[in-house]
Amino acid sequence: MTAFRLTETPLLSRSAVGRAEELRSDSHALLAGWQDAVLLRVNHRGQVLVDDEGLVFGAATELGPEPVRGAVFLGIRKDRHVWAMRVQAMTGKLADLRVLGGTLDDADAGLLTGAIAMLNWHDSASFSALDGAASEPSMSGWSRISTTTGHEEFPRTDPAVICLVHDDGDRVLLARQPTWPPRRFSILAGFVEAGESLETCVVREIKEEVGLEVRDVHYLGSQPWPFPRSVMIGFSAVGDPDAALVFADGEIAEARWFTRDEVRRALEFGDWASDADAPLLLPGSISIARGMIESWAGADRGTAASNA
Question: Domain Nudix hydrolase, which positions (predicted)?
Answer without folding.
Answer: 155-280
